[in-house]
Design a protein that fits this description.
The complex is a heterotrimer of chains A (288), B (311) and C (544). Chain B is mainly alpha-helical and 311 residues long. Chain B has twelve helices and no strands. The longest helix of chain B has 38 residues. The chains are: A mainly alpha (288), B mainly alpha (311), C alpha+beta (544). Chains A and C meet through helix 2, helix 10 and helix 11 of A and helix 1, helix 6, helix 9 and helix 12 of C.
């Protein structure tokens, strides 16, 4: 992940076509994401079979009977595992985004408002945190605390906070320079009140846009960490774990598990990316 | 320039401090962490205490560790009873080759596709947009599985796993991994290239030059590309730096014997000294590349003075 | 743009779906494939010398070349190519002369005469001092070797002259010769070990032995290379290949790919999920031979639910062994009527065969198992299984046990460690904390069921982690150890075995075959388990 990535939306200008052509894309994306969240929350309940029930004589068997996607190498129903696995795959990144956006925004707004040595100090810390790519920090966390979803989420949150902080600091500085802020100060409002009730709501579109884009990155990074065996642990049906579990199958000519899980990840990430770009565009327009 | 170098050193010091302190953040006493929770005979414990100066104050230990690291001494692996530095030097070649190979692919296809899309609008441009949309959403480990399935298992054109021996064989073994590593990242380079080339091409002075009758090719080279080079170089450099982290995933997926896969293995083996050593090496490479990109950006853009802040 | 992207995604889905087609459905029960009786002992003899180095696969890196710490496949495979044992096991499991010959002065006095031609790689002769030193190292508590218990009936080991060693016993011990034909009997050079001190057996210290191959280079992450010793004292086993490079393959897929491309010349995998594919490969030969190994679940915590014999029996009745054998061994294993593999019948075969025939084939009986669980009153309790998700067979086995446990109404948790760390379950009490048991593919040191049972069914056994003790079993085993006549010894062992199969200190899962996979360019070594203990890789040579 690069420092430029969250601002990528800014650099890509879509030629202005009719609004009606873009709307259906947004609708599809939101539908996919809502579906993903619903499955994440109730996946294991709506799964047709027990995702953990194995029958070794069914290993690698293709779609048959009520098993729409066939079986995995241990003879477990693939569709059920996919549905049950949505939980960690989707809710993990939600946690990462919540923490990094929450902390990042708070820190950035405070730095922009207070300025001076506080701002310089925070900026220095942020600059240094950029030295740790999310995955490396997660590997270190796994070595220190033992591999688990929790250690991966915390590590990624720490790694993503600087990106949020940098973007939000710039936006907060621009807001602070606006006329209405000076007016509110004159009226006697405290800095905290101004930030909370006026500044933050005005950069809210940007926050939401960044959160959406970060969600895509967090989902891929967390799935990669689980793929490495340092996040969600097998035999939990997380999609990243499933790609790794399916590897033996891939080399024997039965790539169903890996491909199904990989495709699921990609569909959600594409939806999130497309939606995120739209939101960034809107955030650009609303801030000028 | 000096400021950036100072930032580089400070970042490295702080990162090394974080990596070093991780040993003490871990639950349990340092000996337990270093041994990965294994029961050790008293003689081995004495060796660990001496080597890590566990009876000295914290900062003294840190300084000793950094001094050792600078001289290439990263401690001993608890599972293989071997110097971490030799374990690293045996594997760093593979990682650097893979990252270099992937970087070439990113520059070639990323910039190439971006240029194609920007300079030849129409169906070609649409094609480029579609390709970059898909590749942007393709995580490296999914790309690895797809490439293995199609090109290794089904078509048999490339080996599915392993390092290979000898230069030509190694290149063959690293081809699929390099593509897996490059595919997710080249989308961003392509899009930035396309966007900034288009923006430059639409600028007034370029339009003026074209209307004056200067050949299109010369206009592209002299006006468009030179100015577009700045954001392209920046994003390409940052993307290449980010390969360091994704490389762990690709090396694991293709069973390559590199630093990334060994970092993951030693984390799951609870071989702490190795984890610290490799983390330090990888973070250093990452920070150095980012600093080079920063400096390059300042050099290329005459508007940005080398002493000013990046933002 | 987005429309095009959407179309592209749909196309991608179709392609991936097409690629992802699996096998056709099989019947829901686990059919047993016909047991092939075509087990090989020796592969065809080579026609001549093979000119290039041979690469041989291991499932993980060799951790030490010191025989006192060798108790797993990678270490034994490498050490057996380089070092000699005091006595030797043939590929059929018969114990005979090795570095020395054995004569009995009386039941408690064993005299070993060292072959005068035996020399270490540095040219020094193998002397009685070296033998005494090597055997003493096995029992030195300061060194912490694995095989001390083997010598617990030994009173003294003395060099009675430069080429003779006399071992005096407190009590007759008819297991000792077999052990000395195995890992406890590897002889190393005294002056070399003393010179190297702590680094002996490590990457820095190496080793000094007398075998057909000599240590050339050892780089972790790369290869452990041994080169031919043209002056090997046993002329019948002088190597026909210049070098063997032992290489660790991180997974079934890596090993399979390497075998198919020829990067790996050969391998003795314990099990490999791609066995059918490898059998069909035109460049490879796959041989199955008799094995001494047993795939089993070790009960390590007597204080948990598995401490109750009814719970162990219930698990034994609930596990789907045939499904596991089909999935993991692809038919290269049989249902374990006894914990010890038929490949361990190195003597009195008829007695052991009769006992085997009288025992039932273990088939699942869930109803009976549930009854036992109710009687034991452990419904709803939790057990934790030690395993490694990185080792395919152990991962599948753990999942199968988890499924069985859950069917019986127990909660089964899995505690996974890395492949490199799996060995810690066997040697480190810390590693066993918090688990009720773990999986193993285990083996005796030589062809005798007693070799395996002694480590787990009597107090003080090196693999008896839960202090299992049954005085009757202990009595039979002690008597067997004192009995000279093989048939009588076998009958005592069978009695002990019957009790072991009832009380299940370990729960047997499968009795595998030895799998030997070789590139068609080479041939020669045995397809039996004795590759672990003798210089049999020296039989490798060119096929044409």
């Amino acid at each position: 992940m690069s420092t430029v990535a969250p601002t990528a939306g800014r650099l890509v200008r879509f030629s202005s076509r009719g609004l009606h052509r873009r709307n259906w894309v947004v609708v599809v994306c939101i539908t996919v994401l809502v579906l993903a969240v619903v499955v994440a929350l109730v996946g294991s309940m709506i799964a047709p079979y027990d995702p953990n029930l194995l029958n070794l004589s069914n290993a690698y068997v293709g779609p048959t009977g009520g098993h729409l996607l066939g079986f995995d190498p241990a003879g477990r129903d693939l569709l059920s595992r996919l549905l049950a696995g949505a939980r960690t795959t989707i809710l993990g990144p939600v946690a990462v985004v919540a923490i990094s956006v929450g902390v990042g925004t708070g820190v950035a707004v405070a730095a922009a408002w207070l300025g001076g040595w506080f701002d310089s100090g925070i900026s220095a810390v942020v600059d240094v945190l950029f030295a740790f790519p999310g995955i490396l920090l997660a590997v270190l966390a796994a070595a220190v605390f033992g591999p688990s979803l929790k250690s991966a989420v915390i590590a990624l949150s720490i790694a993503y906070t600087p990106y949020v902080a940098r973007i939000l600091r710039g936006a907060a500085l621009r807001e602070r320079a606006q006329q209405y802020v000076a007016a509110l100060e004159v009226q006697g409002l405290t800095g905290f009140a101004i930030c909370l009730r006026h500044l933050v709501p005005n950069v809210f579109p940007l926050i939401v846009a960044q959160a959406t884009i970060l969600f895509g990155y967090a989902m891929v990074d967390l799935a990669a960490i689980s793929f490495l065996g340092l996040g969600v642990q097998t035999p939990q049906p997380d999609w990243g774990v499933m790609v790794s579990e399916g590897e033996t199958g891939v080399l024997q000519g039965y790539p169903a598990e890996s491909l199904a899980a990989g495709l699921a990840i990609m569909v959600v990430v594409i939806a999130v990316n497309l939606l995120g770009e739209r939101l960034v565009d809107n955030a650009q327009r609303s801030s000028h | 320039m000096a400021r950036r170098l100072v930032m580089l050193v400070v970042t490295l010091l702080v990162s090394s401090f974080v990596i070093f302190s991780a040993l003490y953040v871990a639950p349990g006493n340092p000996i337990a962490v270093l041994s990965g929770g294994r029961a050790l005979p008293p003689s081995s414990i004495a060796v660990l205490e001496k080597r890590y100066h566990l009876n000295d104050p914290f900062l003294v230990r840190y300084v000793d560790w950094v001094k050792g690291a600078v001289h290439g001494d990263f401690g001993v692996s608890i599972t293989l009873h071997e110097d971490v530095s030799s374990l690293i030097s045996a594997r760093i070649g593979t990682t650097l080759e893979l990252v270099a190979f992937a970087s070439i692919l990113i520059l070639l296809f990323g910039i190439g596709l971006g240029l194609l899309g920007a300079l030849r609008p129409g169906p070609l441009d649409t094609g480029v947009i579609v390709i970059t949309a898909i590749s942007a959403a393709l995580p490296a480990f999914v790309a690895a599985v797809v490439l293995q399935t199609v090109f290794a298992v089904n078509l048999g054109w490339f080996p599915a796993t392993g390092n290979g021996t000898g230069f030509a064989d190694q290149v063959r073994h690293l081809t699929l991994p390099a593509f897996a590593l490059a595919v997710g990242s080249l989308a961003l380079v392509a899009r930035v290239t396309r966007a900034s080339v288009r923006e430059e091409a639409g600028k007034e002075h370029v339009q003026t030059a074209i209307s004056r009758g200067i050949p299109y090719g010369m206009v592209v080279r002299r006006h468009v590309l030179r100015n577009a080079a700045i954001p392209i170089t920046t994003v390409a450099g940052i993307t290449i730096a980010s390969l360091i982290a994704i490389d762990t995933v690709v090396e694991t997926a293709f069973s390559l014997n590199g630093l990334g896969s060994y970092l993951v293995a030693s984390a799951s083996n609870k071989d702490f000294a190795v984890v610290q050593g490799i983390s330090l090496v990888l973070v250093t490479i990452f920070v150095v590349i980012n600093t080079i990109v920063d400096i390059l950006y300042a050099v290329l853009d005459p508007r940005v003075k080398l002493g000013s802040r990046a933002q | 743009m987005s429309r095009g992207a959407a179309r592209a995604v749909i196309a991608l889905v179709v392609v991936m779906a097409a690629a992802g087609c699996g096998k056709s459905a099989s019947s829901s029960s686990s059919p047993a494939p016909p047991k092939s009786s075509s087990l090989t002992v020796m592969t065809p003899a080579p026609a001549g010398t093979y000119s290039s180095p041979v690469t041989w696969g291991l499932y993980r890196e060799v951790s030490s070349l010191d025989p006192i710490f060798a108790f797993d496949y990678p270490e034994n495979t490498a050490i057996a190519s380089m070092c000699d044992t005091l006595l030797r096991q043939s590929p059929e499991g018969v114990v005979g002369p090795g570095l020395s010959t054995l004569t009995y002065t009386n039941p408690t006095t064993l005299v070993f005469k060292i072959n005068p031609a035996a020399k270490f790689w540095d040219g020094s002769p193998v002397t009685a001092d070296d033998v005494v030193y090597s055997l003493d190292r096995q029992t030195d508590p300061k060194l912490g070797g694995f095989y001390g218990a083997v010598f617990n009936r030994t009173k003294s080991i003395v060099a009675t002259d430069p080429s003779t060693v006399t071992i005096t016993l407190k009590q007759a011990d008819y297991w000792l010769p077999g052990e000395l034909a195995s890992t406890p009997g590897f002889i190393v050079e005294k002056k070399y070990v003393e010179a190297k001190g702590k680094s002996f057996g490590t990457v820095t210290g190496g080793t000094m032995c007398s075998g057909p191959f000599e240590l050339k280079t050892w780089k972790t992450g790369d290869v452990l290379a041994v080169k031919a010793n043209p002056n090997y004292w046993d002329a019948s086993l002088r190597p026909k290949v210049p070098e063997i490079d032992f290489k660790a393959e991180s997974s079934d897929s890596a090993a399979t790919a390497a075998l198919k491309t020829g990067e790996l010349t050969g391998d003795y995998p314990l099990n490999i999920s791609t066995l059918d594919e490898l059998k069909a490969d035109p460049n490879l030969h796959v041989y199955l031979g008799s094995s001494m190994s047993s795939d089993a679940f070790i009960v390590s915590n007597a204080k948990g639910p598995l401490g109750d014999v009814r719970v162990r029996q219930a698990f034994s009745l609930a596990v789907d062994r045939q499904g596991f054998i089909n999935a993991v061994y692809k038919g290269a294993a049989q249902l374990p009527r006894t914990l010890a593999n038929p490949g361990t019948w190195g003597y009195a075969k008829d007695v052991f065969q009769k006992a085997w025939d009288a025992l039932p084939e273990p088939t699942p009986n869930i109803a009976e198992a549930k009854k036992l669980i109710d009687q034991a009153g452990v419904k709803g309790k939790t057990i934790t299984l030690g395993m490694s998700s990185q080792l395919n067979n152990i991962n599948t086995e753990a999942l199968a046990f988890q499924a069985a446990g859950q069917e019986l109404g127990l909660t089964v948790k899995l505690h996974s460690v890395s492949a490199q760390n799996y060995i810690n379950f066997f040697i480190d009490p810390n590693a066993r904390k918090g688990i009720d048991g773990f999986f193993t593919v285990n083996y005796p040191d030589y062809a005798d069921p007693a070799g395996l049972y002694a480590t787990l069914a009597v107090p003080g056994g090196s693999q008896n982690y839960d202090n299992f003790s049954d005085p009757q079993i202990t009595s039979y085993m002690e008597q067997a150890r004192t009995t000279a006549d093989p048939t009588q010894r076998a009958e005592l062992m069978v009695k002990a075995q019957d009790l072991i199969m009832k009380e299940l200190p370990w729960i047997p899962v499968a009795d595998p075959d030895t799998i030997l996979i070789m590139n068609k360019k080479v041939t020669g070594p045995p397809a039996t388990f004795q590759y672990m203990f003798g210089p049999w890789l020296a039989k490798l040579g060119a096929a044409k």
